[in-house]
Amino acid sequence: MILFENVRLLSFNPPSVSEPTDLAAYGPGEGGASAGTIAAIGKGLRARFPQAEPAGAGGYLSPGLVCSHTHLYSALSRGIEVPIAPSKDFAQILVNLWWRLDRAIDLPILEASALSGCADAIAAGVTSIVDHHAGPEAIDGSLSVIAAAYAEIGARGILCYETTDRNGPEGARAGLAENLRFAREVDAARARGAAPLVDAAIGAHAGFTVGDETLEGLAEAVKTSGRGIHIHLAEDKYDAVDSRYRHGLDPIERLDRVGALTPKGIIGHGVWLSPSEIETMNGRDVFLAHNARSNMNNAVGYNALLPRHKNVVLGTDGMGADMLEEFKFAVFRHRESGGPWWPGDFLACLDRGNRLLERYFAADFAAPSGSQVAFGVLAPGNPADLVLWDYDPPTPMDGANVAGHLAFGMSARSARTVAVAGRLRIKDRAPLFDMEAIQRKARTQAARLWKNMEGR
Ligand SMILES: [Zn+2]
């Protein structure tokens, strides 16, 4: 058991700041069915739980942040020193950089990449990471390699493999099979009574690299596995144009026709979706993962229709996993576009990643009152994914201006102590995993990756 003392609870949904109080949480394997959840909140908990490990005192304690769309395989591309041909558009960026990089990934590179990416996320107060993996030369078993990295770092998340037809029908079959194999692996763990930190989704690269036969296979996998699809759609205008030209259908309509849009589904980007497609998504209760920085970096355009979406969540699309930074980019890019949203609207998007987690993980928990557990809500019985922030606000902070403090003040450097499922992973800024060895291994594998890319 861990115990935070004299902390102000910083909540995001609805935003609020409490008076100083204590919070105790069960670690893994403690408290029976309550393992990994918040045990109690109130003053003087030390007397009630004298054996609890001190986790920190003072500061602001919030739910862990969620990165709802990323690519851990790109963690070793930071500062890449490989000649990349100049790219005039998004399709050329894929061909000249990302598809050369993902073909150069083997399992040791993937392991180093996932460890480094997860470690980065946890250190930034991001306790859950939704990953979208590609590595066509090393598909089989790849999701288990990533899951092992999550386990070593102690992060929560949802994994999938980006099924695609761009490497032929065999590549597509292998991608689909890896998604299903990993989903069954998680099902088997649940059948043994485990509450896994990592679940599976059914991954696909993007509409324009997935043909009809593969799409039907994905829809079937969604049904049989009980998971959601996780796919890029209309990230660039090219994807939307291709869908209408080659298939005579809007990208969302293509997915909906085969029944691939379900409440566990995640659509990445959606910059070029039309209002009618957004209506369909809202009707199916699907998530839209908005990646403001990545959209800016790839010059794919701005998603001005965000406010029409029911379920916007935020992701980094592989550009690290610092969700406070991503939140700021989302806010300021929107302000620049003259849109109607304010920081509070984007805080709601950041918090909504918890609804995604609930749809995958809530059934693993026995909520005390018989109701469903809630992620991102500091209350007894809910999952203890927690971040203690060092922040000394120069102006008053209360529920009405939490989003303003996040947009204009707080940053990842304030993350002092981080716990996932009641298990401390960072304590007083010191990682409880071997960060130095992880980054050393990452640099070695990055050099291999870059070398592998030459000539591809
Ligand atoms: Zn992406």
Write up what this structure looks like.
The protein is α/β, with parallel strands linked by helices and 456 residues long. It folds into 2 domains: 2-63 and 380-431, Roll (Urease, subunit C, domain 1), CATH 2.30.40; 65-360, TIM Barrel (Alpha-Beta Barrel), CATH 3.20.20.140. It is 39% helix and 20% strand. The protein has 14 helices and 19 strands. It has helices at 45-48, 90-103, 107-123, 142-153, 168-191, 212-225, 237-247, 251-257, 275-284, 292-297, 323-337, 343-361, 402-408, 435-453, and strands at residues 2-12, 15-17, 21-25, 38-42, 53-57, 60-63, 65-70, 126-131, 156-159, 198-200, 202-206, 229-233, 266-269, 287-290, 312-314, 386-389, 415-420, 423-427, 430-431. The strands form 3 sheets. Strands 1, 2, 3, 4, 5, 6, 16, 17, 18 and 19 form a 10-stranded mixed β-sheet that branches. Helix 4 links the parallel strand 8 (126-131) and strand 9 (156-159). Helix 3 (107-123) runs parallel beside helix 4 (142-153), helix 5 (168-191) packs parallel to helix 6 and helix 8 packs parallel to helix 9 (275-284). The longest helix has 24 residues, at 168-191. The model has no long low-confidence stretch (mean pLDDT 96).
